[in-house]
UniProtKB/TrEMBL annotation:
Official protein name in the record: Biofilm PGA synthesis N-glycosyltransferase PgaC
Source organism: Falsibacillus pallidus
Molecular functions per Gene Ontology: glycosyltransferase activity
Pfam families, per the entry: Glyco_tranf_2_3
InterPro entries noted in UniProt: Nucleotide-diphossugar_trans (IPR029044)
Length: 446
């Protein structure tokens, strides 16, 4: 595919608002929203307090209404104020190395490498596939790619199980200033690497990493993947944009991100953690380095097609977040924006627990006419959610997909189920992951 030549659709710098002003303006709007919510919820609070006592009522309502409303308002205002700085160039030529950790990826690795070979990137691309104790034909498929594709592919072997072992083995062979990690089932848009590198060289000198945009590639497989498509397209993307705006994307995900090689090595490489990419990112942030996000660097990954695999994945993500909090406390982060963003993560176990053990039972009670926990006031958060998703949908459609000559798939049923029911699944699964980490259950890469 030929390179996309038209200019990147970011607004002129004369409209740019300083990050500090965006931060405090968004907080002011969120605080105002929460104050209004509290005033309107006073009767609800009194009624629930008469049943479960006032402290417990405060804990429940704060967890299902006040705090989520505040966070959604902060997200909404931040997205409205977000203006991605213009890139210095659309056609960088810096050499890059790609690391692909592969464990039993016989049916996917060739296609992943093929998509890398079709990149319109003008710089040199060196690829290392690190076979991590595969028992299938991963090595043979990699060898086929070496012969058939116009791409520099190198094969490495790492017998110690664990993605961090494979990536650290590959890191020893990296000679370029930038290293990109790509999952073995992730497909890159033809201009993806070009935009990822362009964002990095356009960032301030203290930038250590840039997270790419990861979307679902198998959304048509079944209803479950259709729902997840919207999570990646709207939910995860909105959080990434928020965090990137405040110079601290909390996860430069291993599925597709670019790092400065020297920064990865100085941070100690990928750690022995189930969320190795989370802990590595937080180590970088702790060193007062910045981590950004580039929405135009689009990739497509295979999302879990069964509930069982979904639970494993999201529980693993929840455990990774706890690992990061255990190693690096929010108050140890030097930048105020990162202190705030990682502090939100400290609230997540509480919010997920309240949602699981209060909101879901409250929803059941509401069906029987008992509106003690779930009632009209709980719908106060819904408008903010729909508005923020609408803003991101418009952004994704006109500033990302149209620019990349992509079309948004029609998936109305998936969207409806995502909005009204996805959190009812996500919160219990996350609680399950927190319990796993609390009792240090056995880790699983997949």
């Amino acid at each position: 595919m030929k390179p996309i030549q038209h200019s990147i659709p970011y607004k002129s710098k004369k409209y740019y608002v300083l990050v500090k002003r965006k931060f405090w303006a968004s907080h002011f709007f969120a605080l105002l929203w929460m104050i209004i919510s509290i005033l309107l919820a006073t009767p609800w609070l009194k009624d629930l307090a008469a049943i479960v006592t006032f402290p417990i009522a405060i804990m429940i309502i704060s967890g299902i209404s006040f705090i989520p409303g505040y966070l959604n308002a902060f997200l909404l205002m931040s997205l409205l104020l977000d203006r991605q700085p213009k890139m210095k160039t659309e056609s960088p030529e810096e050499p890059v190395t790609i690391l692909i950790a592969a464990h039993n990826e016989e049916d996917k690795i060739f296609q992943t490498l093929e998509y890398i070979s079709l990149q319109d990137y003008e710089g040199e691309i060196e690829v290392y596939v690190i076979d991590n104790a595969s028992t299938d034909g991963t090595i043979q498929e990699t060898a086929r790619a070496q012969k058939e594709l116009k791409l520099s592919v190198n094969r490495l072997s790492e017998e110690n199980p664990g993605k961090f072992h494979a990536l650290n083995h590959g890191l020893q062979h990296v000679k370029t200033p930038y290293v990109i990690t790509v999952d073995a089932d992730t497909l890159l848009h033809p201009s993806s690497i070009r935009y990822l590198v362009a964002r990095m060289i356009s960032c301030p000198p203290d930038a250590a990493a840039v997270a790419g945009s990861v979307l679902a590639k198998n959304s048509r497989e079944n209803l479950w993947t259709k729902i997840q498509e919207w999570d990646y397209f709207l939910g995860i993307s909105s959080i990434k944009r928020l965090q990137g705006l405040y110079q601290g994307t909390l996860v430069a995900q291993g599925a597709y991100s670019l790092y400065k090689t020297a920064a990865v090595k100085e941070a100690g490489g990928w750690p022995d953690a189930i969320g190795e990419d989370i802990v590595l990112t937080w180590r970088m942030l702790e060193r007062n380095w910045k981590v950004y996000y580039e929405p135009l660097a689009v990739s497509f990954t295979e999302v879990p097609s069964s509930f069982k695999h979904f639970v494993r994945q999201r529980a693993r993500w929840a455990r990774g977040m706890i690992e990061g909090l255990r190693e690096i406390k929010p108050w140890k982060q030097p930048l105020i924006y990162i202190k705030y963003l990682t502090s939100i993560n400290m609230l997540m176990p509480y919010l997920d627990a309240v949602y699981t053990f209060a909101w879901i039972p409250g929803l059941v009670l509401a069906f029987f006419g008992h509106y003690w926990i779930v009632g009209p006031m709980t719908l106060f958060v819904l408008p903010l959610t729909l508005i923020s998703y609408s803003i991101l949908l418009i952004y994704q459609k006109y500033f990302v997909f149209r620019h990349l000559l992509l079309n948004i798939r029609k998936n109305t049923i998936g969207f409806i189920l995502f909005v009204i029911g996805y959190q009812m699944i996500m919160s219990p699964v996350s609680v399950y992951g927190y319990v796993q980490e609390l009792f240090r259950w056995k880790r699983h890469w997949k």
